[in-house]
């Protein structure tokens, strides 16, 4: 199937594209939350804490190995595909895949040795063995987004893998088989590589010239990290907010409290996931429009995106606020301050939805260097506050650190966007 020329589409077309992506993204988001529920209900919050920490390690390895390649693919391969240059898009993808496999395979070997010689949790080994597959799936997801197939991309993410694993676990429970973290690791291993194989088949069909068109200009593999370093900083900061923070608080609180914080964070992300949907839907479009000097369209897409996101996020936040206590009870969460923490994070995520498109715009129109500096500052702020407040306030301190870093990043991005992002003059990119 050839690529559709819809980069300039706005209005109803944008809403329809968002809706298609929303459906698949909802499946992905629900999968992560469902797995959290299955683990907490079947094995308890302590087991959820162990799994969350292991998943944070695995995803950290993936982020380090991909080194910002996903964003580079969305931005540059999106432009290449819009111009019919499939060979250049494939060159970027292959360089990213080579570097990613190098890092994740090394981590998988270390994971096996860690369990064999240091008697670590077996779930760590299984998840690190999954890391090469998860890394390639994320690169495939980036190619789908670059090709304006954002509705397919969520099926290549860890959330969908979690959904499939949850379904298998629930089926096993129904048949009388006990749920364990070791079995969960094995299930995730099988699902990861089955989905990876399917994603390659779909990618070949959606971009018919991707594997056949010759590469016109060779790209050095070792030159790839130079292009992605700014993107890596931004992706790592995002990873830290969602997963890395779990590793930090695990230094100070019990596995049960880690599990509690992980579940609350995932519930709050139900408000935020529409921002991910919109980012996946419009990122390549914004990059291409800006490359074509179509600044008015960029501004129009940005404004429509904010309105659509708030229209979806506010009802979700209201439902979670009204029914927060019975919802928390379903996850076996009984901590006295859990309801207050969830309420605070819901407010933070609504504000994030209202302002979070600004960092996406800066990233796609050539201001990666400024955004990199912003996220480096806010990452340091988040990490410092987590180390300072978690020992004193427990998971409430971690929630404060999370909120402070997220809102500071968006505020600084909005300020830069209002003062410096011209709609009449294109800035030089600094990839």
From TrEMBL:
Membrane topology (UniProt): Multi-pass membrane protein
Annotated PANTHER family: O-ANTIGEN TRANSPORTER-RELATED, PST FAMILY PREDICTED COLANIC ACID TRANSPORTER
Keyword Glycoprotein set for record: no
Listed name of the protein: Uncharacterized protein
Compartments in which it is found: Cell membrane
Keyword line: Cell membrane, Membrane, Transmembrane, Transmembrane helix
Highest taxon, organism lineage: Bacteria
Membrane-traversing stretches: 21-39, 45-67, 99-117, 123-143, 155-175, 181-204, 236-255, 267-286, 307-328, 340-362, 374-407
Alphabetized InterPro entries for the sequence: MATE_fam, Poly_Biosynth_Transport
Pfam families xref list: MatE
């Amino acid at each position: 199937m050839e690529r559709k020329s819809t980069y300039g589409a706005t209005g109803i077309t944008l809403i329809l594209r968002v809706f298609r992506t929303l459906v698949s993204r909802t499946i992905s988001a629900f999968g992560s939350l469902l797995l959290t529920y299955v683990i907490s209900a079947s094995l308890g919050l302590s087991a959820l804490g162990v799994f969350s920490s292991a998943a944070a390690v695995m995803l950290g390895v993936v982020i380090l190995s991909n080194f910002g390649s996903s964003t580079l693919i969305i931005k540059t391969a999106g432009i290449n595909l819009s111009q019919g240059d499939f060979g250049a898009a494939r060159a970027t993808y292959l360089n990213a895949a080579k570097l990613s496999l190098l890092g994740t395979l090394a981590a998988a070997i270390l994971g096996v040795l860690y369990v064999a010689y240091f008697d670590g949790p077996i779930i760590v080994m299984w998840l690190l063995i999954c890391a090469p597959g998860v890394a390639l799936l994320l690169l495939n997801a980036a190619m789908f987004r670059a090709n304006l197939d954002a509705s397919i991309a969520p099926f290549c993410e860890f959330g969908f893998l979690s959904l499939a694993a949850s379904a298998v676990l629930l089926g096993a429970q129904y048949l009388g088989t006990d749920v364990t973290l070791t079995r969960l690791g094995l299930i995730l291993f099988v699902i990861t590589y089955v989905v990876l194989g399917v994603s390659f088949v779909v990618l070949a069909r959606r971009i018919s010239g991707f594997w056949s068109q010759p590469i016109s200009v060779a790209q050095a593999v070792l030159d790839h990290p130079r292009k992605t370093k700014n993107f890596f900083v931004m992706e790592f900061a995002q990873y830290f907010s969602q997963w890395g923070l779990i590793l930090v608080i695990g230094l100070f609180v019990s596995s049960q409290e880690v599990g509690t914080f992980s579940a609350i964070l995932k519930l709050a992300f139900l408000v935020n996931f529409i921002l991910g949907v919109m980012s996946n839907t419009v990122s390549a479009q914004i990059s291409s429009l800006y490359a074509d000097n179509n600044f008015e369209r960029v501004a129009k897409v940005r404004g429509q995106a904010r309105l659509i996101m708030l229209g979806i996020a506010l009802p979700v936040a209201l439902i979670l606020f009204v029914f927060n206590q019975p919802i928390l009870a379903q996850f076996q969460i009984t901590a006295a301050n859990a309801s207050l923490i969830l309420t605070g994070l819901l407010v933070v995520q609504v504000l994030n939805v209202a302002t979070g498109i600004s960092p996406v715009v800066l990233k796609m129109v050539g201001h990666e260097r400024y955004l990199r500096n912003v996220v480096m500052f806010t990452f340091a702020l988040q990490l410092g506050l987590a180390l300072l407040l978690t020992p004193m306030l427990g998971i409430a301190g971690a929630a404060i650190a999370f909120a402070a870093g997220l809102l500071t990043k968006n505020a600084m991005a909005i300020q830069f966007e209002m003062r410096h992002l011209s709609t009449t003059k294109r800035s030089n990119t600094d990839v």
